[in-house]
């Protein structure tokens, strides 16, 4: 595991298309902005379970409905 120290306003780049931005740091908490392509799934660690529906499932469902 790579461990990095960053200050507010500094970034971490992952590959060529994902950037993490440290937006706020207080005692015990860090707020991170994530700039990534839409096709990259970004989830909090505690939500690791597979989603019940994928984005494609939801798009197909919405496309089939008539209003």
TrEMBL record:
| Single biological process term from Gene Ontology | regulation of carbohydrate metabolic process
Q: Name one GO cellular component term.
A: cytosol
- Keywords, sorted A to Z: Bacterial flagellum biogenesis, Cytoplasm, Repressor, RNA-binding, Translation regulation
The answer to whether keyword Cytoplasm applies is yes
GO molecular function terms here? Answer: mRNA 5'-UTR binding
Which superkingdom is the protein from? Bacteria
Q: Where in the cell is it found?
A: Cytoplasm
Broad class of where this protein is predominantly found: cytoplasm
Q: Name one Pfam family in it.
A: CsrA
Instruction: State how it assembles.
Output: Homodimer; the beta-strands of each monomer intercalate to form a hydrophobic core, while the alpha-helices form wings that extend away from the core.
Query: What task does this protein carry out?
Result: A translational regulator that binds mRNA to regulate translation initiation and/or mRNA stability. Usually binds in the 5'-UTR at or near the Shine-Dalgarno sequence preventing ribosome-binding, thus repressing translation. Its main target seems to be the major flagellin gene, while its function is anatagonized by FliW.
The UniProt family comment states: Belongs to the CsrA/RsmA family.
**Record protein name field:** Translational regulator CsrA
Source organism per UniProt: Novipirellula aureliae
